[in-house]
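Worked example 3 (structure in, sequence out).
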């Protein structure tokens, strides 16, 4: 009987490794099955980013001098200086314009040539005292260096609201008043800044109409409802199932401001033919978005007949010698044990036995292995010989099995993680989906009456970066 022990240990470990290592992730077993989302699973979070069309906005803000000219002509042309003893009237010449983006804002730059008239009120009428740069843009004009910073905030119903402020108004070239030989530039800096601050709110309101974000979000929302083919060979599909949206702030995208929206989804993984697309309308965005990362918990339900067939292909026919005879596996069957895994092995030859092995699988993330706890086994046939073996050998064999049943699956999980990540990075109709899978682990494996249930868990990030032209009409 002593030679029977190590041979049985070796082959039991080998059989269990073949069963549990091959079954959960092999296409031949899982093909044609659907994955289900565990009840009570928390929603996944992802973000979409819509580029703000800064080109049209830059043109609008670049024409601020025209707005100032209209603003001044509709009001008083003369600006009161000091205590009311002096008055200033300015003229703006065509300016040089440019714009840049930095982070989440648009910076509009201009060099503004200007001319000035200085007057006093004498006997109820304006009397011009001096001027500079009034007659010719190339003669005597002063110049201001002006920068306007436009930030963006998100409004209701997928609107983006520009909000501008004067970042800098500085004298770039003096404008010397005739007669007095006084530089009018310091006065002009104050007057121009004040007038600019008055007209910017009206320009911002006009600019809001140039940021058509909602059609782009609608297009992307529809994209997210389409099934994503993750693996063509295994017919593995990801249904994102977006539920709600929320404003997620404005952040840079490829160096330009982009409106961000968070999407809460309840993704599922499906095997088999392409699932039917959903057609939910775009919901109104919520006020706050909390990003807990993108995760998918999915359980593959493998029909028990297929699982047993795969098991039998792997182990039936295994044979070994005991010196005076041989033992051969002639049948193998999985059986349900709740959260444990049970395997019944039928042996024939010198020792006709039926062994029933059970254990509770647990995944060790750091080691990348399935370990088994609460391991035990029984011999189904009760004979004097088996009773004697059980009395002397059961506990040492049980401890040996508990220590040796360690199944490496990190390589297989890494391959699945890479396949998922590849499927999450692709071009869609409105832009590019970018996903990472930072972790994929086996959460549970259980044999049920009708199926083998294998549950996986993924953690990562997912975002959708829209193309710059997605906001075009």
């Amino acid at each position: 009987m002593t030679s029977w022990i190590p041979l049985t240990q070796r082959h039991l470990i080998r059989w269990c490794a073949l069963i549990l290592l091959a079954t959960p992730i092999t296409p031949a077993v899982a093909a044609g099955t659907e994955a289900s989302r565990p009840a009570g699973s928390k929603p996944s979070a992802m973000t979409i980013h819509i580029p703000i069309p800064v080109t049209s906005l830059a043109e609008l803000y670049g024409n601020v001098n025209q707005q100032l000219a209209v603003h001044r002509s509709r009001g008083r042309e003369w600006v009161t200086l000091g205590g009311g003893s002096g008055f200033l009237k300015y003229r703006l010449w065509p300016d040089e314009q440019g714009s840049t983006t930095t982070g989440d804002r648009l910076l509009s730059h201009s060099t503004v040539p200007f001319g000035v008239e200085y007057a006093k009120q004498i006997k109820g009428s304006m009397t011009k005292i001096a001027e500079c740069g009034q007659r010719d843009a190339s003669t005597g004009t002063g110049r201001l260096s002006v920068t306007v910073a436009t930030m963006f905030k998100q409004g209701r119903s997928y609107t983006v609201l520009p909000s501008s402020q004067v970042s800098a108004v500085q004298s770039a070239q003096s404008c010397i008043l005739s007669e007095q030989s006084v530089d009018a530039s310091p006065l002009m800096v104050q007057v121009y800044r004040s007038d600019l601050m008055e007209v910017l709110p009206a320009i911002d309101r006009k600019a809001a109409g140039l940021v058509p974000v909602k059609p782009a979000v609608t297009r992307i929302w529809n994209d997210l409802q389409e099934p994503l083919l993750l693996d063509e060979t295994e017919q593995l599909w990801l249904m994102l199932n977006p539920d709600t949206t929320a404003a997620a702030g404005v952040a840079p995208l490829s160096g330009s401001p982009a409106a961000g929206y968070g999407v809460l989804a309840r993704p599922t993984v499906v095997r088999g033919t392409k699932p039917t697309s959903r057609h939910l309308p775009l919901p109104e965005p919520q006020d706050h978005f909390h990003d807990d990362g993108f995760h998918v918990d999915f359980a593959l339900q493998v029909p028990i007949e297929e699982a047993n067939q795969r098991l039998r292909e792997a182990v039936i026919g295994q044979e070994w010698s005991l010196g005076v005879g041989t033992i051969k596996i002639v049948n193998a069957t999985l059986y349900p044990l709740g959260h444990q895994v049970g395997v019944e092995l039928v042996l024939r030859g010198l020792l006709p036995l039926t062994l029933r092995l059970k254990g509770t699988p647990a995944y060790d993330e750091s080691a990348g292995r399935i370990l088994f706890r609460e391991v035990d086994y029984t011999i189904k046939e009760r004979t004097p010989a088996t009773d004697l073996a059980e009395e002397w050998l059961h506990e040492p064999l049980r401890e040996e099995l508990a220590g040796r049943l360690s199944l490496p699956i990190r390589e297989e999980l890494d391959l699945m993680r890479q396949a998922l990540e590849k499927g999450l990075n692709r071009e869609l109709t409105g832009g590019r989906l970018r996903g990472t899978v930072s972790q994929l682990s086996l959460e549970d494996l259980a044999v049920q009456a009708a199926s083998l249930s294998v549950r996986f868990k993924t953690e990562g990030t997912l975002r959708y970066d829209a193309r710059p032209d997605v906001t075009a009409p």
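Notes: The CA atoms of residues 446 and 453 lie 5 Å apart. The chain has two domains: 4-50+218-466, 54-208.
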